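Support reply, case 0932

Customer input (verbatim):
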Amino acid sequence: MKQLTIKLELVKLKAVVLSRSLTLYNLDDLHLWRLAIKALYMKLPCLLIFLLTQLLAQAQVVEADRLKRLLKKADSDTSRVVLKARLAHAFLFFNSDSAMTLCEQVIAEAQKIHFPKGEVMGLNELGNALRLRGDLPKSLQLSLRALEISKANEDREGQATSMVYMGSIFLQLKEHKQALQYLHHAKRITSRINIQILAVCQIGDMYQNMDMLDSAMLFQQKAYAQLKNIPRGTLKSLVPTRLGLVYDKLGNHDEALSYYQSALKNADILGDRLNQGRI
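Our regenerated output:
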């Protein structure tokens, strides 16, 4: 009975998120959300993934528009390359063809102006797009190329990003030993805390999927503890969600609900539809 009450409370929280979004999203989006919630509780993962992809597109369009405005004001070639790479990332979940075209432009333009950091950004984003499409061999090939270039130019942020993406690929392939090597190395070589948090969170997620819940808890708590050091962003939805999942698997449903509430609140503020749907 207690578990049922908690599940009903989660549905109520999602309803609050929906009601707050009335002025931002149309009725079709709200209908998609209702279907997504049903898919979540009926355990229909393929339908859920499709619906969440449609919902995420709305938030990503807003971010893409913001980056387009910045791109028009960019006053240097390197700034344009960096902004275009970020725009490609924003396009990933609602227009992957355009995202990949942008990535190819980033790579070509970065090579033309001899800007290896920009080339690495383009390669990493293109690899990420291909990973989301399921082309893991090509994705891995591009991430390896990005890693080689970033190493040659002592671009630690580029190296760490490549390694996190490669670790994610190996996680999907269930090659846990290799995944751990890349994820651990990524968090050691960069001072960029967002990459460190993502790497630690990915490690925790791997242990959760292996039902090694003590290890999963350790890493997700480490990731969560670091959230106070970064501004509001999607990691503040992702990490609490994954920590809540560990508590849920351990049978501590009250604690899980607390983290889900925190994640939902953050996702609501950001318009972060992907992480709203993960809960």
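We compared this against your earlier run and they match. Two observations from our side: DSSP finds 14 helices and no strands in the chain. The chain has a mean pLDDT of 80. Please reopen the case if you see a mismatch on your end.
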